[in-house]
Protein: Dipeptide transport system permease protein DppC
Amino acid sequence: MSEAAIASRGEPLARRSRWARFLDSDLFSSFRRSKIAMAAFAVTLLFFTVALAAPWISPQNPYDPAQLELMNSNLPPLWQAEGVRPFLLGTDDQGRDVLSAVFYGLRLSLVVGLLGVLVSGTLGIGLGLIAGYFGGVLDTLIMRVADVQLTFPAILIALVVDGVAKAALGGHMDTDATIALIVVSIGLSFWVQYARTVRSQVMVEKGKDYVQAGRLIGLSSPVIMVRHVLPNVTGPVFVIATINLALAIITEATLSFLGTGLPDTMPSLGTLIRIGNGYLFSGEWWIVAFPGLALAGLVIAINLLGDWLRDALNPKLQ
Structure:
């Protein structure tokens, strides 16, 4: 038998072996023992699935003005006397189906949250690696900036970044530019946790033998940091990223609720809550209730997953 055939047959076996090792790992065993973690994972997976499938499962495209009818505005949920098909959860003041708006709002909130975590994680991990590995003036400068930022609430940092950028650009931005600005604002608000955690881990790792061996054979500092040190400090980073995903979604919702986030034409969950808040005391409770429940359920599920992951990766609790 040729070497290529052996390699082609051995590759799936290697994949199965890696999957089998994962199924036998302490992490998966801890997951199976935790009913809360499994329930939180199921709810989170449901929200992600609904968000991805929104264009196919939504009764209406709430972002398409051609599909909106003002005659259908402020209709109650279907189970009430004045409910009308196919508006299961009722409609808002623009005749927008609340269920469809929640599905699409979930999509926007998750996209902004994930991109915000990616930006903050990339920035924080990079600065933490530099501060921990090189030390000295760079370490002092980065950590003092982090200390100063910690004195301000994250939402205030996001509001300042958002306001300054809009003032500099004249306030004339399309939807894509607005989303990018919100992502950057969230990223600049949450990088400190990554930087401080990675710095402390790197300061421990850089004194170990494998780092010294890399220096002796002539590897450059960026190669040592990225290819050898970084994989050994990713455990706490995953925990921070999971918890920060919930914080990023809440921050985006807060910005949108305050009117500085996404426009009404492409509302996230925060924008839907802001729109519905104006009709809460006039009896149209469903406009704010269902987006609020979706946001609360998503954030709680992600936070529960983050709590489980933190405990599962804590060697003191093993």
Summary: The two ends are 46 Å apart (CA to CA).
